């Protein structure tokens, strides 16, 4: 889905936009791009055909190979349903309707973490080369519209100490915690759809395997009575568990952070691996 979304973005004018209202108008149209829609429809059809297979797996006990395989596959299945269909992120009603799936993912993730703790000699040495579940826990903490589910995802990240793919999970946990504050500040008298559109501007990337986290989001400027784009950097001084967040100079333009990584961009891109634009 990533390359298809990038192609749709590059085919629009969104990378040149600097105003929130313009981006708010373009995001839904990009999510409804014909290639994006085709991919999502094909994925949905495949997922529907696989749904019954997951329900047919008998619970033969936590130690049985069929159960453990199903336990590993079901979260992957849910992650495709929730995170690989961008059109459903355009509307607050559709994203709210997804809530039961992240809730199920968390239940399975908690069980998987407990089993991992039993079978791992030392949690520090827990390593997953393909990304594991931590990245999906972060996405739930960022996107799910149920605050209780988001809090559960943050707690799960805190208890999942490991090297998950390229990233240390403490960086993902720090990002989820900072987003908790962003979510609280975002709630005001506007409609839930307007609040959700502001959250589209959350962008982040990780450097040095997650030792440094860069986050951009919209914040209310009380004196101007308007929402402005700000940037913060989270770092872990002296190997501390909690990140220290430092406010940077406001971005020179309102353009998407992701556009800095494209060859045609006028500014130099980030030095670390790109993170994700939330849509």
Q: Could you walk me through the main structural features you see in this protein, from its secondary elements to its overall organization?
A:
With 279 residues, the protein is of the alpha+beta class. The protein has one domain. The chain has helices at 2-10, 20-31, 34-55, 65-83, 92-97, 100-119, 134-143, 147-158, 169-186, 192-199; strands at residues 127-128, 163-164, 167-168, 203-207, 212-221, 226-235, 244-247, 273-277. The longest helix has 22 residues, at 34-55. It starts with a helix and ends with a strand. The relative contact order is 0.11.
Distance between the termini: 12 Å
Total DSSP E strands? 8
Shape: globular
The succession of helices and strands, N to C, reads HHHHHHEHHEEHHEEEEE
- How many separate structural domains? 1
Mean pLDDT: 78
Structural class: alpha+beta
Rg is 19 Å
| Percent range of helical residues | 40-55%
- Report the sheet with the most strands, covering strand number, pairing sense and barrel closure: 5 strands, antiparallel
| Sequence stretches where pLDDT stays below 50 over 5 or more residues | 263-279
Put simply, the count of helices is: 10
**Looking across the biggest beta sheet, what order are the strands in?**
7-6-5-4-8
Sheet-strand content, in percent, reads 5-15%
């Amino acid at each position: 889905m990533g390359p298809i979304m990038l192609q749709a973005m590059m085919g629009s004018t969104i990378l040149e936009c600097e105003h929130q209202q313009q981006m708010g108008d373009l995001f839904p149209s990009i999510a409804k791009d014909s290639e994006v829609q085709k991919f999502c429809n094909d994925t949905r059809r495949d997922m529907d055909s696989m749904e019954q297979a997951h329900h047919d797996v008998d619970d033969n006990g936590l130690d049985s190979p069929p159960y453990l395989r199903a336990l590993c596959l079901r979260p992957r299945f849910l992650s495709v349903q929730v995170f690989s269909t961008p059109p459903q992120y355009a509307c607050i009603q559709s994203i709210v309707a997804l809530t039961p799936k992240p809730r199920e993912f968390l239940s399975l993730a908690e069980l998987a973490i407990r089993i991992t703790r039993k079978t791992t000699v030392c949690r520090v040495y827990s390593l997953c080369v393909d990304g594991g579940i931590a990245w999906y826990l972060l996405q739930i903490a960022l996107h799910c519209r149920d605050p209780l589910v988001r809090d559960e995802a943050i707690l799960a990240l805190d208890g999942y100490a490991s090297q998950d793919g390229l990233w240390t999970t403490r960086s993902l946990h720090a990002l989820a915690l900072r987003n908790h504050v962003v979510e609280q500040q975002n709630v005001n008298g506007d409609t839930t759809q307007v609040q959700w559109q502001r959250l589209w501007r959350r962008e982040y990337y990780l450097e040095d395997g997650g030792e440094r986290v860069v986050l951009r989001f919209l914040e209310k400027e009380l004196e101007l009575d308007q929402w402005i784009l700000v940037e913060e950097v989270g770092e872990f001084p002296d190997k501390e568990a909690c990140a220290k967040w430092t406010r940077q100079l406001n971005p020179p333009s309102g353009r998407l952070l992701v556009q800095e990584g494209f060859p045609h961009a006028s500014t130099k891109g980030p030095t670390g691996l790109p993170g994700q634009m939330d849509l």
